[in-house]
Target: SDR family NAD(P)-dependent oxidoreductase
Amino acid sequence: MQLKGKKVLITGGSRGIGKCMITELVKHGVQDIAVIGRDKDSLKALREEFESVNFLFVRGDVGDINALREISSKVEDEWGSLDVLINNAGVVSAGPLDEQSDEDIYDQIAVNLTAVVVITKYCIPILKRSDDAAILNVSSGLGLIGMPFYSVYASTKAAVRQFSDAIRRELEPDHISVTCVYPAATDTDMMTTSKAQNMDTPEHVAEKSIDGLINKKLHVIFGGEERLQESKLNFESPEKLDAKIAESYDERREASLEHKSM
Ligand SMILES: NC(=O)c1ccc[n+]([C@@H]2O[C@H](COP(=O)([O-])OP(=O)(O)OC[C@H]3O[C@@H](n4cnc5c(N)ncnc54)[C@H](OP(=O)(O)O)[C@@H]3O)[C@@H](O)[C@H]2O)c1
Model:
């Protein structure tokens, strides 16, 4: 697809990977971008940083269904149609499941999964008015391989993968392409409280993700050959991967305890 002149709605475009995706979109000639995020100052800063962009903003929480209704209605009222929907906003709260607060469990599912499904539902009618529409969903490497102490986050991201496959097949007659990306550990605010090392840069992840969108790739998987091999092992001999992961059980538990970005 050609991005020049396209109208794009992105969730969580104010920081991290989402903001770097805006940089990529602008490089490819996008001028109309709608963003939903919770922090007013970060949204304001986008307008100052990207002077060439006509932004539509909704300050709100994607976990709130009214905010999703508001952004999709705003796009319909102002633009009449939509070319690209990017479901990027995400949160994480790691640690043993029995130590997670009920609120963190509900909020991770609401932000990482329910919001993706609901905003996509609201956007389908306006995407259908575009001649060349696409959806980009941000899953995670943990959506391919369920790691201990990330049971809730990993479940939401695996569901994003499954949703991407299902909705792609459902929208086939409408020629709306669906790309799902699976970042590995990426150096953003989300990872400040993690102990991850050798992280990808958000610029790299955004560039490859937008390239996947343009080329209508179904899946963009980060983490190199090692991630692909682990994913294969996870499917073919999960007990072998269980044994490998068990070797670093205590280390993984310890590292997860502080990791939270909600
Ligand atoms: N960083 C990684 O290692 C990594 C790895 C795999 C997958 N991912 C996925 O990549 C995506 C982007 O993550 P990131 O690393 O760029 O995170 P980030 O730097 O923490 O940025 C998250 C973005 O989402 C927005 N957001 C979060 N919760 C929201 C809510 N309830 N309502 C509206 N907006 C919300 C934030 O804006 P406000 O705070 O202003 O609302 C911000 O713009 C996420 O889906 C994440 O799960 C990240």
Notes: The pocket of NAP is lined by residues 11-12, 14-18, 36-39, 42, 61-63, 88-91, 111, 138, 140, 183, 185-186, 188-191, 202, 261 (CB under 6 Å). The domain at 7-261 is CATH 3.40.50.720 (Rossmann fold). The chain has one domain: 7-261.
